[in-house]
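Suppose you are handed a protein chain with no further information: no name, no annotation, nothing but its sequence. What can you learn? This example shows the usual starting point.
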Amino acid sequence: MTERSSFYRKIIYLVLIAVLLFPISRLGAPSTLEDEGGTLAQWREEHNLGQSNLGDIDPASETIRLATLGMRGIAVSMLWHKGIIGKPISGAIQLRNPETNLRSELISFGALDNKIEELTIGATQTDTEDIERNLYDDFVSPSGQLEIRIQCLERGQYFGFAQPDCYLRLPDASPLLNTIKVYSSIWVQMVIVTSIGVAASSLLSGPVAMLLTVSFILLGFFREFFLGIAAGADYAAYGVPKVYGGGPAESLVRIVTQKNVITDLDPSFGTSVIQSIDAVLQTLMLSVAQLLPDFSAFSTVDFAAYGFAVPPERVSQDLTVCLGYVVGMAVIGYFLLRTREVAK
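A reasonable first move is to predict its three-dimensional structure. Written in structure tokens, the prediction is:
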């Protein structure tokens, strides 16, 4: 290859580059206030693909940092993956029978940030083979289970989901009726405390009866912990969490000797005596625990605080327990009063 042919080739390359500048400038010319710009600028404007359509950029965000460091393409990609501000993210719900694997068609919806999406699912659904099915007869298993699958339909996006985020919403209940139910749970506790105080005052003096009633109230609010101490190793049979540290006598020894509740006591005659005392005390505590009203279980304030209706079964259960305590304490108070001499 001669130097002259190499020179001619370079001239041809320069001419081709100069010719290609015209279509490139026509395609990639940016838009201005007076001109719509090139073909690519017009397409971006027509299909909302411009960076100005991606949404607002936080000046303190990672995107603006990447853009100022020369990584403009990565910053644009991050904005696209983040999504257009104000535009719902497409998703779909699918119903599935966990036993027969029968699936419904996808039910589309759009999700927005900080917004609860409410969807009405009809009793008649279409399966994947375009056959109409009944929601309760076909998609709900004989054991009463229904699987709900939620998926995001957009690439680079996902739904952050926890189990309580998807639930079946019951119809709105009456706020007045719900308030009455909450007050009824407070009234039930008041009636139980009154019945205990009246039964105690039929035999004991006023200060002692008041002290016994207050003790019942305090132990009733901590009945689960009290029952856990009384049950000891048999805590699982009573459905309460395990309480470490042994019974009252063993706990007293641990406080004096500054031993933690996990470490076992050294095997000795004194340890055997302490455990024998605890066995007697725990038997008495277990008998008392069966009579204690669980005041913490009567409260229905959380239902109203979180916007849920108090179930009627809960109210009827509380009223039944209240009636049992009133009748029982009335009978005990009657026989206690019969043992006292009443002046004519």
